[in-house]
Write a structure and sequence with these properties.
single chain, alpha/beta, Rossmann fold, 2 domains, seven-stranded mixed beta sheet, 14 helices
Length: 393
């Protein structure tokens, strides 16, 4: 029995991808140490969707990896991808192969939106599951935080042209405008360009209260570093593409100091219930995990539980039965009981807010110690009502 793992371990997000991979492997290794799952030992098929050409995740490589997983009959489920651009490329292929995948990190809502079911799940059933919520919550919830907590009156928005970056920036911008925050402009960055000083100097001349970036580390590191050089006092924020060791390592201090970032999950790293996981992770891998190490661990727990329930029910452990068991999951994990709606989205929609605050007592690239948890970003009541109506329909 094989579990596929697809992550960008080449390029700008390699270190964070490694922390996600290790979280998934830890759960599987623990299960194997106890004798496996229903008589099966878990094997892995680890595939890299990062390429040197792209310098980060590469949707074309992700599609190739999805075909490789589908063609390997021993692969009964998969974990990944990290990036939504890869998810959009993989999902139709996995759907045709009836191969369920659980993403611990990709948040673009289109992939699981029933409006796009014909595009992303052409075979019908949900196969793309998440142990994180989507940018339909992450973007707007941060806009609420801007309005209510940071008292931002004006903002300029940047994105990195990727599926994730554009999607979260769109969602943030729409809610920010609803909350009365003045939108001074929006620009799209080429992740491969080295110098963003022209656009950042233009933004400085408009004197916004804040800068919001939607995107991942390849462009994000440069945005964080160069925006500090040009506008050191401005409020700067982004989504989970700004949460990770790559930002800390690439931008460094003092540039990273004060940056706000969200994740599409509860903050669990400093929760006492997660201490055994953190200790086991550090012992095995020699470095601190991040929150998406935990959502990857939880994704593996969901697959393991699904396989166990299929076997105990006397059914064949195959993709179709494991997919159905994942869909019906009520699995106890580090973030609580994980369950999914009919589209594969996790039913818990918590978004956590962090701010980078330098702590000299710990390694400066430690996500656990350099990102300080500020609380959950509030979901607007209008958004909750709309979701309730959609669920009722």
């Amino acid at each position: 029995m094989t579990i596929g793992i697809n992550l960008p371990v080449t390029g700008a997000d390699a270190h964070d991808a490694e922390l996600i991979k290790d979280g998934a492997l830890l759960a599987s290794d623990e299960a194997n140490a106890k004798g496996g799952v229903a008589g099966y030992k878990i094997k892995y098929l680890i595939l890299d969707d990062g390429t040197a050409t792209a310098g980060q995740y590469d949707p074309a490589q992700a599609a190739t990896n999805a075909r490789k997983m589908v063609s390997d009959n021993s692969v009964i489920a998969a974990i990944g991808p990290q990036m939504s651009g890869s998810g959009k490329a993989m999902s139709p292929i996995l759907s045709q192969g009836n191969l369920p995948i659980i993403t611990p990190a990709s948040t673009n809502p289109d992939i699981t939106d029933p409006k796009f079911a014909g595009q992303y799940r052409p075979a019908g059933k949900a196969i793309y599951f998440r142990t994180v919520t989507t940018d339909a919550f992450q973007g707007p919830n941060m806009a609420n935080y801007f309005a209510e907590t940071l008292k931002v009156k004006s903002v300029y928005v940047l994105d990195d042209s990727g599926a994730y970056g554009v999607g979260i920036a769109d969602a943030f911008q729409k809610q920010a405008e609803k909350r009365g925050i003045k939108m001074l402009g929006r620009d799209q960055l080429n992740p491969k360009e080295a110098d963003y000083t022209t656009v950042l100097t233009k933004i400085k001349s408009m004197n916004p209260d804040a800068l919001y970036y939607g995107g991942v580390a390849q462009a994000g590191v440069k945005v964080v570093k160069q925006s500090y050089d040009i506008m050191p006092k401005i409020i700067r924020a982004g989504g989970d593409g700004c949460y990770g060791a790559e930002i800390l390592k690439g931008a460094g201090f003092p540039a990273a100091e004060g940056l706000y970032a969200t994740i599409a999950a509860p903050n669990l790293l400093d929760n006492p219930d997660a201490k055994p996981f953190v200790d086991a992770f550090v012992k095995k891998y020699g470095q601190q995990p991040e929150n998406y190490s935990i959502t990857a661990y939880d994704a593996a727990l969901v697959i393991i539980d699904a396989v166990k329930r299929v076997a105990e029910g006397g059914k064949e452990v195959n993709r179709a039965n494991v997919r159905d068991a994942i869909q019906a999951s009520k699995t106890k994990t580090l973030q609580g009981v994980v369950s999914f709606d009919d589209n594969g989205d996790i039913t818990n929609r918590e978004v956590s807010v962090f701010q980078i605050k330098k702590d000299d007592k710990h390694p400066l690239d430690s996500v656990l110690h350099q990102y300080k948890y500020l609380g959950a970003a509030r979901q607007s009541s209008r958004c909750i009502r709309r979701i309730s109506l959609l669920t009722a329909v």
